[in-house]
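quick one, 299 residues, struct below
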Amino acid sequence: LEAFFMHSPLPVFALLLNALIWGLSWWPFRLMHEAGLHPLWATAAMYALVLAGLLILRPASLRQAWQYPVLLLLAASSGLNNVAFNWAVTVGDVVRVILLFYLMPAWAVLLAWKLLGEKPTPMALLRLLLAFGGVVLVLLPADASLSGLFAGLTLADALAVFGGFMFALTNVLLRRFQGIPAQARMLAMFAGCMSMGLLTALSASSAGMVPGFPAFDSSWAFLALGLAVVLMFGNWALQFGAARLPSGVTSVVMLSEVVFASISSVLIAHEQLSARTLAGGALIMGAALLATLGRALKK
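---
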């Protein structure tokens, strides 16, 4: 059976499904926001449901996770990554947010150098140059000088860059903790998403940045429940596909999230894709593809 899956298109379709889910996730987050539930509260509520589902299906994962206190680092990074992404796609330009979030391969070079002792190669430095060059094109207005790069930075832009950095840190920590059972790692990540969502929501609410938790409303409650189920299914699809395909293939397929997010934002939210955004996106995606090809060639 395993040999069949290794040569069938099902693992690729599973990864495409996961990319589709995350590429469209901005839409239900915006609908919940419009119904009165801020994405921070939505993240906390949804991952509480996902965490409960995991504990019901895999109760032994809690005992495993307690044996590895270092998983607190993974919980924090994955939680902050999720919080930043969900908040950013709700309040910002979807394509711009997704592109800035996909700076992950560039951050990974720097983090792997610091945390794993992997000195960057000339190709890795080229990826950094391409990725950050793409960021300049995406963020810098056409009539502004380079010194004005941070002047027009929005909350969504900052969240997207921060989220991408945390996503890279999560991936580096997953590599560092690969000896820890997968169930324990997954529980730590789900618990981190719930707790970081709740802590950020409480902090931002007390500071007056976001509204408090709203009164129950079925319009956002059913959306939150449905998205929680879909995200859990998407996580299963990712695990199914990634376990049966080379990491290089997985990385290339997952880049389709950018395509799904771009097309859906144009069709649903009527967002505009400027030439500068497309050019910057091409550089950022080029850096990600180079990272993928580099891993494939090592094998």
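DSSP finds 15 helices and no strands in the chain.
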